[in-house]
Write a structure and sequence with these properties.
The chain is of the alpha/beta class. The protein has helices at residues 17-27, 33-48, 54-62, 70-85, 91-102, 115-124, 154-167, 184-187, 200-209; strands spanning 3-6, 106-114, 130-138, 141-147, 175-178, 192-196, 213-214. The chain is globular, with a radius of gyration of 17 Å.
Length: 217
């Protein structure tokens, strides 16, 4: 049994769950529409360029959750995932997950989005194990701050290594699927890296390194 590790956004799904959730929060009246989305998109452009400080993105997009309970948020996340996210699941991703299950591999999603989003989406794929950005609670309410190492760029490697130690696991024969240049630190760590619908920087690196390039739909 080997690990099969998957990025989420633009890898398992055709879109970015954090951006779609930002839009959902404006529809719920939790955030001011035009100004909030404009700033969120500005931050996402920095992400695409590999220049984003994830702390800045999280501080901004978590502000609408301050003072809300996990139960309140989960109540609206469930229909959001069903109505908005499930329709953009990649069929090729589902087939690949099925093949790894058939092989007896252990499935893990590791994403630079908030844990409450990633876990809800992973559950729909039938994946129980998730590493994502953890959020701080104060007296049972979201504080608007994160906890621990953020699962972003080198932080994905740090968090994964800690998880491997906790689980008495290793990366022998492990696969990792991602679309993003930001995941190069982890892609370079595993035995079987896959570039899925890669951005230009990742595509160039994959071509030079001889990594498989997958076009998922």
């Amino acid at each position: 049994m080997a690990l099969a590790i998957f990025d989420l956004d633009e890898t398992l799904i055709h879109g970015d769950c954090a951006s779609l959730w930002a839009l959902e929060m404006t529809k719920l009246g939790w955030a001011d529409g035009e100004a909030f989305i404009a700033r969120e998109q500005e931050l996402m452009r920095l992400y695409a360029a590999g220049e984003l400080a994830m702390e800045d993105y999280m501080a901004f997009t978590l502000a609408p959750l301050v003072g809300r309970t996990p139960e309140e948020v989960a109540h609206v996340v469930e229909p959001f995932v069903e109505d908005v996210i499930e329709p953009i699941f990649y069929s090729d991703a589902s087939r690949t997950l099925a093949a790894h299950r058939e092989a007896g591999d252990r499935l893990l999603v590791i994403s630079a989005s908030a844990h409450f989003l990633v876990s809800a989406i992973a559950e729909r794929f039938g994946i129980d194990e998730v590493l994502a950005i953890d959020l701080e609670l104060q007296h049972g309410f979201y504080s608007g701050r994160t906890e621990g190492v953020l699962t972003y760029r080198e932080g994905k490697v740090t968090r994964l290594q800690a998880w491997l130690a906790e689980q008495n696991e290793n990366l022998a024969g492990a696969s990792f699927y991602s679309d993003s240049r930001n995941d190069l630190p982890l892609l370079q760590l595993v035995d079987r890296p896959f570039a899925v619908n890669p951005d230009p920087t990742l595509r160039a690196h994959a071509e030079q390194a001889g990594w498989p390039i997958l076009n998922w739909r």
